[in-house]
Specification:
Blueprint (H helix, E strand, L loop, with lengths): L1 H10 L5 H4 L1 H25 L8 H20 L6 H23 L1
Helix pairs in contact: 1-3, 1-4, 3-5, 4-5
């Protein structure tokens, strides 16, 4: 589901974000993927219930899905896409570092 949201958002990008800023998209997806993978591993080790719908993931999906809907309706982005992906990168990285520090 995470990959689908990112792929659809990149596909409907009016600024062709994968051509102009591919690293930002890859970092955003990569940080989200690493965070989900670490949570799955932690829940397996601790025998805890895995919850895939955490705040960081939901915030990212909400931003990207609202972006997709806005682009489909108005044929333009509701904000600078490079800035949007930079904010997602920073949010995901901070969340990942918070997870790593608190689990360690």
């Amino acid at each position: 589901m995470n990959a689908a949201v990112f792929l659809i958002a990149a596909y409907y990008s009016p600024a062709h974000i994968m051509e102009t800023h591919p690293r930002r998209v890859m970092y955003a997806f990569g940080f989200q993927f690493i965070l989900m993978t670490l949570r799955v591993q932690l829940s397996g080790v601790t025998h805890d219930k895995f919850n895939p719908f955490r705040r960081t993931t939901l915030i990212t999906w909400a931003v990207l899905i609202s972006h997709i809907i806005y682009v489909k309706i108005y044929d333009k982005a509701f904000m600078c896409e490079a800035l949007m992906y930079l904010c997602i990168d920073i949010l995901s990285f901070i969340s990942l570092m918070h997870f790593v520090v608190n689990v360690a």
